[in-house]
Amino acid sequence: MKVPFVNYELLTKVIKESSIQALDENIKDEHKPVIQTKSRSSTIINPFVGKVIAVYTGARSKRIYVTSRMVGFKLGCFAFTKKLGKSIHNSEHNRKKIAKMKRKITQKKVRKTVVKTVKKPTKKKK
């Protein structure tokens, strides 16, 4: 059985934060310190439960509140690197691409519909 990969720096940050929270139990959920990481490949383990981890997606950091149901998954599963939704597909750049593809398709259809006429052989006179 493979041992789950956890970035060493991330693990030390989580352990430090849990020791601070053990000393001061009056910290509310709103004021919990956020742990920054770029390690999307780290596996979520039990000490991470109840912590807020900001995972870097390449452009910005996505805050993730870790629950017990997330244990065993990678941090990258909860922080998407690409935009989702209709707005990404309706951009000006994509409209130009779609129009170009439509032109190509119609040109191909026009080329295929052209019927070539077969010339009848003429009889040669002797």
UniProtKB/TrEMBL annotation:
<dbReference type="InterPro" id="IPR002222">
    <property type="entry name" value="Ribosomal_uS19"/>
</dbReference>
<comment type="similarity">
    <text>Belongs to the universal ribosomal protein uS19 family.</text>
</comment>
<protein>
    <submittedName>
        <fullName>Ribosomal protein S19</fullName>
    </submittedName>
</protein>
<dbReference type="GO" id="GO:1990904">
    <property type="term" value="C:ribonucleoprotein complex"/>
</dbReference>
<keyword id="KW-0496">Mitochondrion</keyword>
<dbReference type="InterPro" id="IPR023575">
    <property type="entry name" value="Ribosomal_uS19_SF"/>
</dbReference>
<keyword id="KW-0687">Ribonucleoprotein</keyword>
<dbReference type="GO" id="GO:0006412">
    <property type="term" value="P:translation"/>
</dbReference>
<keyword id="KW-0689">Ribosomal protein</keyword>
<dbReference type="GO" id="GO:0003735">
    <property type="term" value="F:structural constituent of ribosome"/>
</dbReference>
<dbReference type="GO" id="GO:0005840">
    <property type="term" value="C:ribosome"/>
</dbReference>
<feature type="region of interest" description="Disordered">
    <location>
        <begin position="97"/>
        <end position="126"/>
    </location>
</feature>
<dbReference type="Pfam" id="PF00203">
    <property type="entry name" value="Ribosomal_S19"/>
</dbReference>
